[in-house]
């Protein structure tokens, strides 16, 4: 019977469609959108397609990619992080002010920030507090600490950090190497390891994972630690690119990181995330702003256009889901 069913699927093509649907996941649309936007930019300005042009266009988006990955891990657990922007700003200030004057103290400060992010996960899991409230409250803490250290923009990022964040090769732009390596490593961890499956399971079915013997608190700590780690990477690359410190430099990354994850196929239900989609979503959000500048669109309209893009993607995803559901009921 199994062979007959399989043969029937091959004959009518439904098996092929099922395999194709499994292969083309929620990441497909944002990847296509990112490629399309980049192609339009190259058509408008051919120099964008050169190694230097790729570095100039995609390089500034690396901090946003890391911020999106940080937000992705929080959303994977069914939470939302409204403090990631201020956290990135604090990391930037530490790297620009504390690290140059006392390397050991600056490094200790960054480790303490990572521990504080993990502690946030413990607090939310143990006390069952709304993540949106806790992270919003902590955003004021991060911003306040940053302003105490650096009330006005200034400082100087160590040249070694600036050189590291701007590295490149004669043939392949460094930004492409970073994007491919980071995406591959994170995707393999999330999708191909047992604990990656556990972390996603905690977001969608925490009670089931608890009954299977996994610790909800441990999973929350891991998710928030990973978010804090990628927040530090975002601050590191942002510091290397700007060369100085600014307590408010990362504020815009809150909504942009959320938009990137949602555009990339994530949902607020938890457990439904896509690493490739989140990276592509960050590139879409970032390159869209650059494309609008190429087209001469005023910066006053860029935020509105990005919001319309998010709504359009959500509508397309809803339509696609409706079509898949309709096919199943046939």
Automatic annotation (TrEMBL):
Subcellular localization(s) per the UniProt record: Cell membrane
UniProt topology in membrane: Multi-pass membrane protein
GO cellular component, one term: plasma membrane
Organism superkingdom: Bacteria
Keywords: Cell inner membrane, Cell membrane, Membrane, Transmembrane, Transmembrane helix, Transport
A GO term, aspect molecular function: transmembrane transporter activity
Pfam families on file: BPD_transp_2
Cytoplasm among keywords: no
InterPro entries for the chain: ABC_transp_permease
Major localization listed first in the record, in broad terms: membrane
Transmembrane segments: 20-44, 50-70, 82-99, 105-126, 133-151, 171-191, 212-238, 250-268, 275-297, 303-323
Record-given protein name: Ribose transport system permease protein
Organism name: Microbacterium immunditiarum
Taxonomic lineage of the native organism: Bacteria, Bacillati, Actinomycetota, Actinomycetes, Micrococcales
